[in-house]
Specification:
- One of its GO terms (biological process) is DNA replication.
- The chain has helices at residues 55-66, 76-89, 92-97, 107-121, 125-142, 238-268, 274-289, 349-359, 374-384, 390-409, 416-433, 444-479, 482-514, 521-526, 530-540, 550-555, 557-562; strands at 24-25, 44-46, 49-51, 104-105, 144-147, 150-153, 163-164, 177-178, 187-189, 207-209, 218-221, 228-231, 316-322, 325-334, 340-346.
- The strands form 5 sheets. A 4-stranded mixed beta sheet has the order 10-9-11-12, with no helix packed on it. Strands 1-5-6 form a 3-stranded antiparallel beta sheet. It has a 3-stranded antiparallel beta sheet with strand order 3-2-4.
- The protein is built from 17 helices and 15 strands.
- The protein has 569 residues and is α+β, with helices and mostly antiparallel strands.
- A hairpin with a 5-residue loop joins strand 14 (325-334) and strand 15.
- The structure holds a DNA duplex (22 and 22 nucleotides).
Length: 569
DNA sequence: CTAGAGACTTAGCACAACTCGT
DNA sequence: ACGAGTTGTGCTAAGTCTCTAG
């Protein structure tokens, strides 16, 4: 099943009728483990008196108890949403009695779960092995499907277990109960002529359908936002790989016409139509700053975040002059996942003047681009180039930046670790462009200190090695024999070795420091044409394992097969 | 054009698994 | 062999974009 062939030049739709497969067979999802009631000695108490909860109410209470040491359980919205949903699961007697969250004591439950997790850590090796074996069995049975002629890995074959919803950022629905998914909620998708997955004994699927226009195997509707969740294939699968390839080919098509498009939107800055000016300025931001498109969101349904088209007046500040630069736009807004975007960018005068115009007579909470949305923008883009949408600019600019940076930063004379540092720096330039941030690792300070200690130790070692070398030189001068000559050689070698080790550590420290709050993974996985990296590795004799781990090599198998050292994005 | 459903990609984080020095 | 620190993986939320109906 590992052998795949791709057309060498252009990715194509496998079928011309829009269907995604002919044959699809799988075992269905793994359901969430059923609720295990608490032992009777673990009690919940209300208003100082212990009280036995009904099974349903107890389960939801344990969700809260498990989260007690997270800061967000102290938030008012979280508590309100939780309590509201919890009460719905109570019996009418419980509901009558439990009316104030502050009077609830979950401590025994919390202690119990802490003890459980300790016990799990302290399990014997055999028991851990047993669990591992069971997981492996589950993976083998449910983790694969047959699509057309290939056995393919499934990405997420487990149904999401129930729990309390925790959105990102300031989410109005945090703390709500994410309910348990039953077989009756689940839609199965497979081919008619396949062996259909069986629902658990005594249950039924909501539906079994045979829709080969879609790629998912299982779906259900989630109760927090009412959106549909899917079980789909792993990125290593044919269907995902071809799609990925296609994405990068579209971005390469953009490369061919991007100068034309840039010229066009610069012209449009002068248009007499407000709508066209807004479109042109937004597109400039998307191109220059790799902003996301910015669809409209329903207010109050999720955290207040924006992208380009949904920017509001309050998200930018205009400075005719700032820090010695003219026409500076200061961006400050929350983007996807409530990650802050903060940037001060000098722009062309004409853009600046347009922004002033767009902001005239508006309140801070008004839309900056009031005549624009993603649908208008994408319709325009579609006319400029086949398959062009706003997000293609992100892919294009990310990939072209990597290629440029690699060209600029790679020094042919440097050794392997130095070259890899260059790669990471090129990758980092992209991550910064795309604003891929992470919380600094909790162990960051300590880990830097450790590394510094290692470096210091290595420096001492080097000084010592150099002293030895000097001694050997002096020896040779005096003795002039073969033995001293050999000794000198070996001391020289030793110095070189330690020098190299020291450099490696210093490179590592630099890399880590620069990476403190930057996440490289997202761009590597989603924005960088893997053929650029494969070509770079081949050109400089870098083993691909230094750049891509096993999972990544599987995902990018198509590119590793395809690209040679002169691949140009 | 608007709203909503649906399908699919992109995202950061928690924790499990592994690695390396002692 | 062990534990601390690092890396990899699973999870699932949060985006983008298309399509359809009114």
């Amino acid at each position: 099943s590992g052998v795949r062939s791709f057309e060498a030049v252009e990715p194509h739709e496998r079928y011309t009728d829009g269907s995604k497969w002919r044959f699809l067979e799988h075992k269905g999802p793994v359901m969430a483990a059923p609720y295990e009631p608490l032992p009777s000695n673990v009690r919940f108490s209300y208003d100082g008196k212990s009280m036995k909860l009904s099974l349903g109410a107890e389960e939801v209470a344990t969700f809260f108890a498990k989260m007690l040491d997270h800061e967000y359980t102290t938030k008012e919205i979280f508590q309100k949403n939780f309590f509201n949903d919890w009460r719905k699961e109570m019996t009418s007697e419980e509901r009558a009695k439990i009316t104030d969250l502050k009077k609830c004591n979950f401590n025994e439950m919390a202690e119990y779960f802490k003890a459980q997790s300790e016990a799990r850590k302290a399990m014997t090796k055999e028991d851990k092995l047993k669990i591992k074996a069971e997981n492996e069995r589950l993976l083998q049975e449910y983790g694969f499907c047959i699509m057309d002629n290939h056995k393919e890995r499934i990405a997420n074959f487990r149904i999401e277990p129930p729990g309390l919803f925790r959105g990102r950022g300031d989410h109005p629905k945090m703390g709500m109960l994410k309910r348990r998914i039953r077989p009756e909620d689940i839609i199965i998708n497979c081919s008619k002529d396949s062996k259909h997955p069986k629902p658990p004994p005594g249950t039924k699927w909501k539906e079994v359908r045979h829709d080969n226009k879609v790629t998912w195997l299982v779906s259900w509707t989630e109760n927090i936002q009412g959106s549909i969740k899917y079980i789909m294939l792993n990125p290593s699968s044919r269907i995902k790989g071809e799609k990925d390839w296609q994405k990068y080919e579209t971005a390469r098509n953009l490369k061919k016409c991007v100068e034309r498009l840039r010229h066009q939107y610069r012209e449009d800055w002068k248009s007499k139509e407000m709508k066209i000016r807004q479109r042109a300025v937004a597109l400039y931001f998307i191109d220059k700053l790799a902003l996301r498109a910015g669809n409209e969101k329903e207010e109050g349904e999720s955290a207040d975040t924006v992208g380009c088209c949904s920017l509001r007046v309050e998200h930018i500040n205009l400075h005719a002059e700032k820090d010695g630069q003219e026409f500076v736009v200061e961006f400050d807004f929350l983007g996807k996942d409530s990650i802050r975007y903060y940037n001060k960018v000098p722009v062309e005068k004409r853009v600046f003047k347009n922004l002033q115009l767009f902001m005239e007579n508006k309140q801070p909470e008004d839309d900056l681009f009031d005549r624009l949305n993603t649908s208008i923008l994408n319709k325009h883009l579609q006319e400029l180039m086949d398959g062009l949408t706003a997000k293609v600019f992100r892919t294009y600019n990310a990939s072209i930046t990597l290629q440029q940076q690699l060209k600029e930063l790679t020094n042919p004379d440097e050794n392997l670790p130095a070259k890899i540092l260059s790669y990471n720096r090129a990758n980092r330039a992209v991550a910064i462009l795309c604003n891929h941030q992470r919380a600094a690792p909790k162990t960051f300070e300590k880990s830097m200190q450790n590394l510094q200690a290692k470096i210091d130790a290595k420096k001492d070692q080097l000084a010592e090695a150099k002293r030895d070398l000097k001694g050997a030189k002096a020896d040779l001068k005096v003795r002039r024999d073969e033995k001293s000559k050999k000794a000198l050689e070996s001391k020289k070698k030793a110095v070189e070795r330690v020098e190299e080790q020291l450099m490696k550590l210093e490179v590592q420290a630099t890399d880590r420091e620069e990476n403190k709050q930057i996440a490289l993974g997202t761009s590597k996985l989603n924005y960088l044409d893997p053929r650029i990296s494969v070509a770079w590795c081949k050109k400089w004799g870098i083993p691909i394992e230094k750049i891509y781990n096993k999972t990544q090599r599987e995902k990018f198998a198509w590119a590793i097969d395809m690209a040679d050292e002169d691949f140009e994005f």
